[in-house]
Amino acid sequence: MIAIPQSILDGLAAHALRELPNEACGLLAGSGSAVSAHYPMVNVDRSPEHFSLDPSEHFRVLREARSHGWQIVASYHSHPQSPARPSEEDVRLAYDPDITYIILSLQERENPDVKAFSIRDGKVEPVEIVSDKP
Ligand SMILES: [Zn+2]
Predict the structure, then answer these.
(1) What phi, psi does 62 have (nearest 5°)?
(2) pLDDT digit string (tens) for 109-131?
(3) What share of the chain is helix, strand, coil (3-state, %, to 5)?
(4) How far is the CA of 60 from the centre of ligand 1 (A)?
(5) How far apart are CA 45 and CA 97, in angstroms?
(6) Cβ–Cβ < 8 Å for 127, 100
(7) Residue ranges of the domains in the chain?
(8) Distance from the alpha carbon of residue 50 to the mean position of ligand 1, in angstroms
(9) What is the pTM of this model?
């Protein structure tokens, strides 16, 4: 389970739409499984099918999150044309077994589909997303 405030879920969708036609990416920070902060980041690949974080921005975000006493809880990116599940490349590049991987699909522009996964040793398991929406 990962707890994400509705305002941050809305922010993820807005970022994903803003970056079209390319993939959007970023990190979510917080404590345990509770997300407190959203860091939209630059996709240095500028591609509709790939994303890479900028190493210096990544470092800056880690430091900024740590200054609030947060850890990185999740990494997210968008799939402009494909479903909200990790691609083979996403599984291969999942670098941290302890964070949650979030994918937003924009196949339906009006209704972004957001799903969360854990990826450990190449094994993908769904993770439930809980928001504070009444
Ligand atoms: Zn992907």
Answers:
(1) -60, -45
(2) 989 999 999 999 999 999 999 99
(3) 25, 35, 40
(4) 23
(5) 23
(6) yes
(7) 2-130
(8) 7
(9) 0.95
Any residues with CB less than 8 A from the CB of 131 and at least 6 apart, and which?
3, 4, 5, 6, 9
What pLDDT digit, counting tens, does each position of 47-67 carry?
A: 999 999 999 999 999 999 999
What digits encode the pLDDT tens for the residues 27-40? 999 999 999 999 99
Residue 101 has pLDDT above 80, yes or no: yes
Query: Letter for the amino acid at 56?
Result: S
The pLDDT of residue 95:
86
Classify the C-alpha dihedral 53-38-8-28 as positive or negative: positive
Q: Is residue 68 a contact partner of residue 42, using CB atoms and an 8 Å limit? A: no
pLDDT of residue 134: 61
CA 46 to ligand 1 center in whole angstroms: 13
The alpha carbon of 126 and the centre of ligand 1 are apart by a number of angstroms equal to: 15
Does domain 2-130 match CATH 3.40.140.10?
yes
* Span from the CA of 7 to the centroid of ligand 1 (angstroms): 23
The CA–CA distances, whole Å, from 41 to 55, 77, 93 equal: 11, 10, 17
Q: Which amino acid is at 78?
A: S
**Residue 98's CB: how many other CB atoms inside 10 A?**
9
